[in-house]
Amino acid sequence: MASLKLKVSYRCSNNNTNSIPFSLSSFCKKEVTQIRFPNTTISPPKLHLQALGNARAKVLFSAKIAAGTVNEVLPPPLDSTSEPPQFFDGTTRLYISYTCPFAQRVWITRNCKGLQDKIKLVILDRENRPAWYKEKINSADKVPSLEHNNEFKGESLDLIKYIDSHFEGPSLFPHDPDKKEFAEELLSYTDKFNKAVFSSFERDGNVAGAAFDCIETALSKFGDGPFFLGQFSLVDIAYAPFIERFQPFLLDVKKYDIIAGRPKLEAWIKEMDKNDAYKQTRREPKELVEIYKKRFSTLL
């Protein structure tokens, strides 16, 4: 009997201050290609149903990846004894450490774009990195780094924008001019926010209050959703890894609850916790607290 050809897929297109440091004034395209089935004794109706079943499974799997609901098998970290990969072989690689919040930003972006099968994770032991990483990839010996188009790129905020604009998947940056402007202001504020909270570690936890008040105010800017720009964006990705660490650490060590009296921040955290693409990158709060206790032991 004649071979049947059918395949359907979908591609998813520093010091604390009481002043506010900034202004307060999924996508799927159907594709039909061909796949050849070998000669078989299955009747045409059954063969047609089999083809549709396989196509449906592929569609569902692609949709789960794009939604961040597929839990990939994560690789073990590479240490000083590990050999490097074959650089510039056509594989796009994201070099991260599991416990680095800067690297986590880019990891989340990758997952939210549904790029688990397009960007390969290379995990590095944060305390015992291979020498070749500093020599060949990142002279500052910091993560994250992205290997793409025969180049190595770094800096987490630059990388989340790069991945969003250079790879397929849902857009994570606004097109609305007002939201775009506010997004840039919030991204620029991330370092000041982090430094303000870090400075509170050697003092009373309440010292961080002004910084979290700024976050609460920023979350009140738009009313069309619980996120910084109303809808989920790169801004949420930029802040999430740090708030994920600050919340349990300040509560455990300083007895300071960052969500007390801040309903917008509380709602934002709850919404972020529902995001599967983000949840796949999270560590246990106890682990994060212990890491910060060790890192900031001289300040406590």
| N→C terminal distance | 77 Å
Low-pLDDT residue intervals, each spanning 5 or more residues: 1-19, 22-68
Strand content: 5-15%
Helices, by number, come to: 10
The level 1 CATH classification of the largest domain is Mainly Alpha
Mean pLDDT: 83
Helical content band: 40-55%
What Rg, in angstroms, do the CA atoms define?
22 Å
Please outline the major beta sheet.
4 strands, mixed
Quaternary structure annotation: single chain
H/E order of the elements? EEHEHEHEEHHHHHHH
Do you know the CATH architecture of the largest domain? Up-down Bundle
Instruction: Quote the CATH topology of the largest domain.
Output: Glutathione S-transferase Yfyf (Class Pi), Chain A, domain 2
Total beta strand runs: 6
Protein name: glutathione transferase
Domain GST N-terminal: 90-171
InterPro entries: Glutathione-S-Trfase_C_sf (IPR036282), Glutathione_S-Trfase_N (IPR004045), GSTL1/2/3 (IPR044629), Thioredoxin-like_sf (IPR036249)
Keywords: Detoxification
